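User: We ran a pulldown and think these components assemble together. Before we commit to crystallization trials, I'd like a predicted model of the whole complex to look at. Sequences follow.
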Amino acid sequence: MNTRLLFCLALFGFGSPVHAELSASIEKLRAVDREGKGNAAATAAWADIVKSEAAALTTILGGMNGANPLAENWLRTAAGVVAEKSAAGAGLPVESLVTFLQDTKNAAAPRVLAFDLIRKSKPEMSEKLAMSLLGDPSSELRRYPVSKLLEEGDAALAGKNTDAAAVSFEKALVAARDEDQIKSAAKKLRDLGKTVDLPRHFGFLMKWHLIAPFTNVERKGFEVVFPPEKEVNLTASHPGKGGDAKWVEFTSKDDYGMIDFNKPFTMLKEVTGYAFTEFDAAEERSAEIRIGCKNGWKVWLNGELLFARDEYHRGMKLDQYKLPVRLKKGANRLLVKCCQNEQTENWTVEWQFQMRICDATGTAIAGAK
Amino acid sequence: MITLPHTRPLPLLVAFLAPFILHPSSFSADWLQFRGPNGGGVSTEAKAAGPQLKVAWSVSLPGRGLSSPIVVGDKVFVTCASGPEQHSLHVFCFDAKSGKTEWERVMRASGRTMTQLKTNVAAPTPCSDGERVFAQYSSNDLFAFDLDGNLQWLRGLTYDYANASNSLGMAQSLSVVGGTLIVQSENDSESFAAGLDVTTGVNRWKIDRPKAANWTTALHLDTGGTKPVVALQSSKGILGIEPSTGREVWNYADGASTIPSSAMGGGILYAASHGITALRPEGSSVSQLWRNEKLNPGTASPVIIGDAIYVLNNAGVLIRASTKNGDEAWKLRLKGPFSGSPVAAGKFIYIAGERGDFQVVDTTAKDGEVVCTVELKETILSTPAISNGAVFIRSDGTLWKLN
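Assistant: Here's a predicted model for the assembly, 772 residues in total across the polymer chains.
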């Protein structure tokens, strides 16, 4: 049992038979795992948990700390039922929900749920609370205060107070972690003549070495181990498709860090390219490598394959794939394989990816160099 | 009082009742899955929805959805997804008579929520076995509730199988046969279909499927045989499987559509393949009866009423053709475009256009006739459900009951 859950159980009077039963039921939900493992036991445990009184709500929320996404959903729905019953009866335990929300050692998911419950029960209180969440570890909880800042900036602009507007928009941009709010704040600042460094805000990796073209005829190159997968030697050239493949330096000028193989190598089809860079971490730490790509791709960090995806031209977006990693202190070597397929429609010309390094909230991690 | 003839009364009674005894869904008012009974889109209840429909009630929904409502008894179930990334997954249960919310459950997507803009995360239609309601989303999250909203089990199929996703969005709907829930996650990468135990959600079987994006839904083939067969459609063709084991029964390998599903009628499978291809599954083989490449369903799946098949093409033209040979009888232009599929009760076809025009077509009129249009004034991309003489249809923001 994790320490956060123990703490919550202690608050709730852990030790009594009723609470021991609740604890046991929560543990059954936390034990669910892939392919339906633990579902049968969880069904009965869930039915027990939803009989709980309102006072148990924060204990149930605490059970979500450190839980996998499946267990989170079991506990989320149980908390929802208990909250619904409580709201219709004696009311929600708003004070303990506020305490839970404000304790940032709790995980983001149950804190978001706590905030939603407070908002439904006490909308005015939630509005006041929300303004204190501008720098919250949860990107979701930042949305409301960021949106208020954008509104304040708009109001200042309408009153022709451009300095005040710029201050609001700047604060909004610094706090925003979701793409729509970042785009909005950046545009408003640029309209006011301010400089915005979006790649730095997002943490995009802009400087790479690229090599291409290797073959991807019949999409078979995706599984072929070409020389860069064995060793990255930036001075070497290798036999490629239609001639030698050589490394070239490439620096993205794109706001969203696009690394476009078409630029140095022209619009080729049925080809494979590689991109290599190093990221210098100030310390060993947890991080997320987030990639957007509509081609077939693989990513290695320090020689370890993180993920491989063989889907072509079905769409691309920021943070399309989130890969939790452990960065080592100093240079971390990143290798990306990017495969282009045979399709000839005009919406299949892209041969590119974007990658950023951030924490789980989406806050950019700056390189040490 | 009705007096039965003295001679051979029992056989006559049995003969009269046989179709309803053999097919428990007959005359049932339940609409348990995408396109209702056996996925055919045709109501089997005695109380048919009429031609002149009006809004009985409407309720607002807090999120987007392309899924159809389903109806179990007096409960209507609808799914939707909300939030900036459509991470919040909702299941609603409404009272069919009043539209009052009976319960709502909100979960969080564990899989990818990226979709093309026109579709959304709540695209697959839920289904029910009469005891439970099963709800799946494009994120590959799957939940089973009892009819009172008690969570029975859940799965995160992309959490289980990390490359099972489609960046355009997935929309294959669930179906349940016997005690097996048929789940499809057919995409360009980790493509599969699985049969899950309805009581625990654990895999009974899992088979690889063609690595190609697919939005069609499994069809339960009611061929009158003792063993049920489910048809899985893909770009490669149509695979008949045993729903309890996933074992192949027959394989039609001449290609099929990946958007409209096929339809079944009178033991014949009208496959969305090269237009429409009529197939007769028998034992371990399937034989072709006819093919009409001009009967080209667009996004909508066809429906069978009696001896006619109705196909809605991408130009918004409803075509009636013979189920015996595929010959066209008439064409009727409707107010489209259409993303949802037509459904039918009695002689009427019900369909909603994307611009919100809900239309009722009398199929017995010469050349067909639109006999009623209800302007719902919202974008509608979904397929209606029919139950207890009423029609249910939803948009991104509203669920309506029409009767």
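Chain A is about 40% helix and 20% strand. That may be worth checking against your pulldown data before setting up trials.

User: Thanks, that helps.
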